[in-house]
Design a protein that fits this description.
By secondary structure, this protein is of the alpha+beta class. Helices cover 50% and strands 22% of the residues. The chain is built from twelve helices and 14 strands. It is elongated.
């Protein structure tokens, strides 16, 4: 989708959202205000009318035969006077009547005195109340319904007030029904006006969007072309926009980015040769040049070597040997990277890796042990395939040692490599050579055992003296199945 289209749609959506939000606030606010005013009016009418009704007289109205009594006629006339006095433009009272709970104790209510003249709308004494009130009927208090009621006669808002006798006891409920047709019609008119205003604002927003889109498309197109060239690898590309506005600022930032990307790309290519992609990204994010400078630190060194590689080489074609080595190194280096290790160098049919550099890792001995176990498991699968296909029993020898070494980029301006130098590397190499002597696949020094933590069943093999090491070292192995 083109940017011009996006601007048009965005402004249209903003206009729609804003318009409907304002319309909603206005409409619902107005509706709530009108409803509260109607509630107040109908409740006032009901309470005033209830205060004019003689509760003692109302207690005498029990059956339809009582409709001919003087008490009934006086009460009916009083209710009609209330009804007729409140049929005004601002509020139109349609029905005024009294009712009470039924003697049947079934939760129902019955009508008592109704102000309506004879006809289908009038309720007789004792008729059951069948309309559904939005608010449960009660004699305890004066109240107005919390919403409009709908029935075959129309839309109403009802107010109720208790009628009391001379002793203060509640004997009935006086109800006033106010017609809500005009109010709802007014609300609908307001809603129609609001929708018209929203439509006008959307049309204006569309026109404005087209104008703005034309003004911003040209410089954005030049920026897009520059970014496309940079994304394609042309880090010498530049965006030529003259101006001090936001587009000029963005163009300058793109040009600066191209320079930074060129420098970052050179560093990333160097780093990605010996660490995983995630670690390379972290190194670059944490000032990679500083991390790659030489410094002394504690690391865990891993050296791995393939056993019986010479026998395999004599049986296979050179292409097959190279193919096996590539597959072997691919799996092993993935395991090293997966445990936050760093590839130092390949050693013919083996390799050297380090843990704990260039990024600090407090668990580097443990990660090295876990990587070694994973390597042994992967090698078992490759070993089974070589036995089945060529009858060659390949094994791997791995050695681990934790100690201090100098790590960093070493070499010339034309060629450098990130490597470790020091006694830790030499000791690891000598430990690895002991795998043949003890017929093991994994040997670790006591410094690795001390730093690896719990969960490993190390087994001591020997305490041996190594050339170049003053004190004897305890050598351990670890069964991959342990």
């Amino acid at each position: 989708m083109r940017f011009r289209t996006k601007i048009t749609l965005a402004l249209a959506l903003v206009a729609v959202f804003t318009g409907f939000a304002v319309l909603g606030l206005f409409f619902f606010g107005s509706r709530a205000l009108l409803f509260r005013q109607m509630q107040s009016q109908v409740l006032s009418i009901a309470a005033t009318a209830a205060s004019r009704i003689e509760g003692d007289q109302l207690k005498n109205i029990r059956t339809p035969e009582d409709e001919g009594s003087l008490d009934y006629q006086l009460l009916r006339d009083e209710l009609r006077a209330v009804r007729d006095a409140n049929r005004r433009d601002d509020v139109s009272v349609r029905f005024v009547y009294t009712m009470r709970p039924s003697d049947a104790d079934d939760g129902g209510w019955i009508y008592l005195v109704d102000a309506e003249e004879d006809g289908p709308d009038r309720s007789a004494v004792g008729d059951p109340v069948e309309f559904e009130s939005r608010t449960p009927l009660t004699l305890d208090r004066a109240y107005a319904d919390d919403g409009f009621s709908h029935d075959p006669f129309g839309v109403w808002l009802t107010g109720n007030a208790p009628v009391r006798d001379s002793a203060g006891n509640t004997v009935a409920l006086l109800s006033v029904d106010v017609a809500a047709h005009d109010v709802i019609a007014e609300m609908n008119r307001l809603l129609g006006l609001g929708l018209s205003a929203v439509g006008i604002s959307i049309a204006a927003a569309l026109i404005l969007a087209v104008v703005l889109a034309r003004k911003v498309t040209a410089p954005l197109e030049r920026i897009r072309e520059g970014l496309t060239r940079i994304a394609a690898g042309d880090l010498d590309a530049r965006v030529e926009i003259v101006g001090r506005d936001e587009f000029g600022t963005v163009a300058g930032a793109v040009n600066e980015m191209a320079v930074a990307l060129r420098e970052r790309d050179m560093l990333k290519r160097a780093v990605a040769r010996y660490v995983s992609r995630d670690v390379a990204e972290q190194i670059l994010a944490e000032n990679g040049q500083m991390l790659l400078q030489g410094r002394r630190r504690e690391i865990t060194v891993l050296i791995a070597d393939i056993r019986n590689f010479t026998a395999m080489s004599s049986l296979l074609a050179p292409e097959a040997v190279v193919g096996f080595l590539n597959a072997f190194f691919a799996q092993m280096i993935d395991i090293i990277f997966g445990h936050r290790g760093t590839l130092d160098k390949f050693l013919g049919d083996g390799f050297l890796a380090i843990f704990g550099a260039p990024l600090d890792d407090a668990e580097h001995p443990r990660q090295a042990v876990l990587a070694s176990l994973a390597m042994l498991a992967a090698m078992e699968k490759m070993r089974a395939e070589m036995l089945a296909d060529h009858g060659v029993d390949l094994r791997i020898g791995i050695a681990l040692h934790t100690g201090e070494a100098v790590v960093g980029d070493i070499g010339s301006e034309a060629r450098t490599e990130y490597t470790a130098i020091g006694d830790a590397v030499n000791i690891t190499s000598r430990i690895e050579s002991l795998n043949k002597q003890y017929d093991t696949q994994l040997l670790v020094s006591d410094s690795v055992v001390a730093g690896a933590g719990d969960g490993f069943a190390f087994r001591e093999i020997a305490e041996t003296s190594l050339r170049g090491v003053k004190n004897p070292l305890k050598i351990y192995t670890l069964d991959p199945a342990a």
